User: What shape does this take?
Amino acid sequence: MRAIQAIIARNLIKFFRNKMRLALSIFMSGLFLFIFSFISNSAISMLSHPMSYLISGIIIMTVFQTSMNNSMNILEDIASGFMKEILVAPIARWQIAIGQVASSAIVSVLQGIIIVIIGIFMGLRLDIYHSFLMICMMLLVGLTFSSLGLLLAALTKESTNFQMLVSIVTIPLTFLSGAYIPAMSLPDFLLPIVYLNPLTYTTAAFRFITLRMENMPDITLVRTGISFNINGFIISPLISALITAFMCAIFFYLCVKQFTSADFSKVKAFKHRH
Assistant: This one.
């Protein structure tokens, strides 16, 4: 446990020292909020708080993207020699993997909380109970996609290829998840992709909690993209949360297994020229 705690502490310190990355993440979230607010206000006019609907999507997408991108740090650590010293230490590799996944998830949740605070000033209404559920859901999403990110990093073993692969995976999944553009406003031929997109269900479950929609009927939840009617079968927010938990277990198992057996002797990291 000490090895896991040490890796988490080290990565958190690194996160707080890298103020530029944090500032850019906040800037991009604000930019998406500004751009897509014009689309969402007309597309989800049936809701009393369309801006909160959009903010909730941006929060969970911030968690998703941060958890994926932070996994590249381990490639940089290995290439710089820092992680190689840990790999040869008397520490089980699965402990290193867990420490990396946990620290990446925590960092992603912290960035999500920053967006939550900004959202409060923009009209997002929260209470203690739903705030706790939001953090739990953010942590679950962070663990899920930190595991996926570490799995991809262990497979690619090169930061440039990893960045390209993450972009190929994240960009289409993000815009077809209902986070920025509501799923019900997308063309019908895209709906099968939306239903196969794992981010669709993480976004729906988180948005259900954030907007406190427990008392809304199923027909309203389907119309607003919180539940999904697939050939008469309703995928409720609870089912969406269970789908996310299932993905988390699968990705976590695969990333630990891949990291344990991976050969990092030829890891390459992108180096900036000064």
Notes: DSSP finds twelve helices and two strands in the chain. The mean pLDDT is 80. Residues 2-261 form one domain.
